[in-house]
Amino acid sequence: MQLSGRDVTCVRGGREVFVGLDFAAVAGEAVAVVGRNGSGKTSLLRLIAGLLVPAGGTIVLGGGDAELTLPEQCHYLGHRDALKPALSVAENLSFWADFLGGERFDFAESLATVGLEHTIHLPAGFLSAGQRRRLSLARLLTVRRPVWLLDEPTNALDVTGQDMFGGLMREHLARGGMIVAATHAPLGIETRELRIGGLG
Ligand SMILES: Nc1ncnc2c1ncn2[C@@H]1O[C@H](COP(=O)(O)OP(=O)(O)OP(=O)(O)O)[C@@H](O)[C@H]1O
């Protein structure tokens, strides 16, 4: 499986953010997208996820499931946690599993893995910032998709959380998944660097 972008141009608000970007990631590989603020790291993840349309170029996943689109094979975790505060932890996970579709793995097991088993009936609005991030990570485990697109994924995670997340990323890569992460901080796993927008 290979994710490749060829000659990709991103325009936002009528302004070119980046032009002619080439990139690739293969099964088992993590790519860290780095660059200064505003260089287009989040925009690149959103282009891959199908949430933005490239102004030029192509992004394809070779060797994936031929019956699914690229966005259907991606998990996109934005830097906001995309949770409904009035719904419980379990209800939020259920919402995401319904929205994403496909086979779903056991909620309780996913929540235990990210250390949230004691919060299952709590409204998500009561969670701390790090707990909200952990709940977002539980999505990655509840519905399995090969391409993880992660925007500043370690934000708000404590040291134990970062270790736990490092383990999850390593397992995902060992299963043949791939990761493209926009980050200003080391991810704690081996990555290949993709720098956009010059030196940051
Ligand atoms: N909805 C929008 N409309 C117009 N311009 C936008 C929009 N969203 C982002 N931009 C612009 O696109 C550029 C790239 O933004 P993006 O969020 O992709 O950068 P980034 O590299 O992720 O930044 P950071 O390191 O600060 O998170 C910025 O100049 C930003 O102002």
TrEMBL record:
SUPFAM superfamilies: P-loop containing nucleoside triphosphate hydrolases (SSF52540). InterPro entries: AAA+_ATPase (IPR003593), ABC_transporter-like_ATP-bd (IPR003439), ABC_transporter-like_CS (IPR017871), ABC_transptr_haem_export_CcmA (IPR005895), P-loop_NTPase (IPR027417). Residues 3-199 form the ABC transporter domain. It comes from the Bacteria. GO terms for molecular function: ATP binding. Keywords: ATP-binding, Cytochrome c-type biogenesis, Membrane, Nucleotide-binding, Translocase, Transport. Involved in beta-(1-->2)glucan export. Transmembrane domains (TMD) form a pore in the inner membrane and the ATP-binding domain (NBD) is responsible for energy generation. Belongs to the ABC transporter superfamily. This is Heme ABC exporter ATP-binding protein CcmA. It comes from Bradyrhizobium symbiodeficiens.
